[in-house]
Amino acid sequence: YFLIFAVMRLTKPTLFTNIPVTCEERDLPGNLFNQLMKHDPSTVKGAETLMLGEMLTLPQNFGNIFLGETFSSYISVHNDSNQVVKDILVKADLQTSSQRLNLSASSAAVAELKPDCCIDDVIHHEVKEIGTHILVCAVSYTTQTGEKMYFRKFFKFQVLKPLDVKTKFYNAETDEVFLEAQIQNITTSPMFMEKVSLEPSMMYNVAELNTVDRSGESESTFGSRTYLQPMDTRQYLYCLKPKQEFAEKAGVIKGVTVIGKLDIVWKTNLGERGRLQTSQLQRMAPGYGDVRLSLKTIPDTVNLEEPFDITCKITNCSSERTMDLVLEMCNSNSIHWCGVSGRQLGKLHPSSSLHLALTLLSSVQGLQSVSGLRLTDTFLKRTYEYDDIAQVCVVSSEVKQ
Q1: Domain at 377, CATH number
Q2: Rg, C-alpha atoms of the chain
Q3: What is the predicted pLDDT for the residue at 50?
């Protein structure tokens, strides 16, 4: 062959590490080791016993490549002969388990390459698949005698998974959905978590619950230095609320299973950036039955033997059947309902709701459960029972004052 082909991966350098050797002054070497470390150019002045130095070292091997990072490589074709070669075409493809990608910056051939000259190219690719990757580099050219030459080289490497992401969903009674995302660093080096955000689906608005308000400023619950050490796990919490136009459609929001996707951005070593975006997160749609009863307003603390008001929302979750509802209120040992039991609420059409204001009082102090509501559909003669709807703290009037 007239041409020599070279491929090198481009990565950031690393800080030089050494092994400090020291001893006490009463030992035989005395202060010799300490003096040698002070004069060593690779040590940190004033902190010579630290393993991490101030100097940078070039990569000594191919290193690890993680999903979401950018793979960069330097490709060089050198004319090692004493003849001029023509029509040089350099092509770089990346073969994965599912596709083959062309990474060449230019598809045009170089007219000629003189002796001791070279063609250089730098390729970049954001890795989006794990597993085996093969960089296929091919060169074709024509000699002075008109003979067409062609050769290829293969470079195989593995793409590893950097993060382990687990999600948990909690469905609240108020149509809110809480998402807990557990993110674990499964690499061998610490990560700086630049951003972890949730992009909600079109039916939801999201509120991030990973910050606290301190003196008017938002501060991360993980502190000012959001580093994630190897094998450490961090929990992120988000609250999703239905948009107003969908919140009133009980049948629609009930069946929504697509919540959104997580967008994670991190940095490693000397600022190497990585990004991962999960697929659409799915939740199990909650089953409310035919009729759903939820509380819109209720006080946290009430006075003993003093009436207090609550507001209930009753929703017909059926998409086809109209209901004719009757409300019954059953007293318990501690909770007593004020009002007429057995009253007609009227007809409730499919996927529609009504708000109901009720009054009750408690005869026992402590944390009491609001129970004893019964809804009867006179069309089907079916009764729906609602107990332990919510809890209120009952205190004496002297304590509250």
Answers
A1: 2.60.40.10
A2: 34
A3: 73
C-alpha 286/C-alpha 175 separation (Å) is: 10
The CB density around residue 76, as the number of other CB atoms within 10 Å, is 15
Q: H or E stretch including 278?
A: none
CA 27 vs CA 22, 35, 47, 266: distances in Å: 10, 14, 21, 47
- Residue 247 has a pLDDT of 65
Q: Is residue 28 situated within a structural domain?
A: no
Q: Phi and psi (nearest 5°) for 69?
A: -85, 170
If one compares 251 and 388, the residue with the highest pLDDT of the two is: 388
CA–CA separation, 231 vs 229, rounded Å? 6
Question: Which of 34-38, 119-123, 328-332, 383-387 has the least mean pLDDT?
Answer: 34-38
pLDDT averaged over every residue in the chain: 86
State residue 257's pLDDT score.
Answer: 77
Q: List the 335-338 sheet strands across, edge first.
A: 291-297, 308-316, 353-362, 335-338
Classify 105 as helix, strand or coil.
coil
Global pTM value:
0.68
Candidates 378, 168, 160, 176; CA nearest to 294 is 176
Q: Establish if 53 belongs to a structural domain.
A: no
Q: Is 135 within 8 Å of 153 (Cβ atoms)? A: no
Picking from 177, 233, 236, 170, the residue whose alpha carbon sits closest to that of residue 209 is 236
Instruction: Using the structure block, give the residue that is written with the tokens 């003093």.
Output: 306
Which pLDDT band holds residue 172 (cuts at 50, 70, 90)?
Answer: confident
Are 151 and 227 members of one domain? no
Domain limits at 262? 163-285
Q: How confident is the model at residue 401 (pLDDT cuts 50, 70, 90)?
A: very low
Cβ-based neighbour number of residue 222 at 10 Å: 16
pLDDT digits (tens, 9 = 90+) for 374-397: 999 988 888 988 888 888 999 987
Structure tokens at 224: 């000012």
Q: Alpha-carbon dihedral of residues 223, 225, 228, 232, nearest 10 degrees?
A: -40
Residue 173, burial from CB neighbour count under 10 angstroms (0-12, 13-18, 19+): middle
